[in-house]
């Protein structure tokens, strides 16, 4: 589907109030992510608030900025983001890189908790922390030897650096009722309707 000047390559996910699509910008010749937000279901000040925060982040931390621009039509507001280079979801699908080394799991979880805590400190809930929203800053790999419980060593490909960036596409259209994302990445008490010791961060891994 072509929406000048971008070509929609696939629909990623969404709900009644928003939809994520991957597009190819035919002018800039690059892939991008567009969040399409309904202007009838989401109040304008919520969308504007997201845009203001993301533009401020772009100015403060240009290196890790993912927000590009926004534009709107009569019914929808379009928020344009960079396409993630490599995500944790991509790595977890690679047979030659799983399981991740325990030290990388600890380092990634620590960064996720810090990122979520920073958002909460600003009164913002991410609501969709999952491997697909965890961008790997540097996908360079190295080969290391690991001792196997059965005895002997094996050589395995791992990330050279475990630094990650939690991608956040704004709160506009996102429900605080727990209906965001897939069950395996949501808090257990939301999925099962009762308190379960642990958090969605632990369920992720």
From TrEMBL:
Example GO molecular function: ATP binding
Membrane-spanning residues: none
Domain of life: Eukaryota
Domain Protein kinase: 1-205
InterPro entries assigned: Kinase-like_dom_sf (IPR011009), Prot_kinase_dom (IPR000719)
Gene3D superfamilies: Transferase(Phosphotransferase) domain 1 (1.10.510.10)
Record's protein name: Protein kinase domain-containing protein
Lineage, top ranks: Eukaryota, Fungi, Dikarya, Basidiomycota, Agaricomycotina
């Amino acid at each position: 589907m072509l929406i000048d000047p971008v070509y929609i390559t696939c629909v990623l996910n969404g709900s009644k109030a928003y939809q994520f699509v991957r597009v190819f910008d035919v002018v800039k010749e690059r892939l991008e992510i567009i969040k399409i937000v309904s202007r009838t279901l989401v109040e304008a000040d919520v969308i504007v608030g997201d845009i203001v925060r993301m533009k401020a982040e772009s100015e403060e931390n240009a290196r890790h900025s993912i927000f590009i621009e926004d534009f709107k039509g009569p019914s929808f507001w379009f928020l344009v983001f960079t396409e993630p280079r490599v995500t944790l979801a991509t790595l977890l699908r690679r047979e030659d890189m799983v399981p991740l080394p325990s030290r990388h799991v600890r380092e990634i979880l620590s960064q996720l908790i810090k990122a979520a805590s920073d958002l909460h400190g600003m009164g913002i809930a991410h609501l969709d922390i999952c491997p697909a929203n965890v961008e790997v800053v540097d996908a360079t790999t190295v080969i290391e030897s690991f001792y196997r419980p059965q005895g002997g060593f094996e050589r395995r490909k791992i990330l050279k650096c475990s630094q990650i960036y939690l991608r956040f596409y704004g709160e506009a259209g996102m429900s605080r009722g727990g209906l965001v994302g897939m069950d395996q990445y949501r808090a257990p008490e939301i999925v099962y309707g009762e308190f379960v010791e642990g958090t969605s961060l632990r369920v992720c891994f």
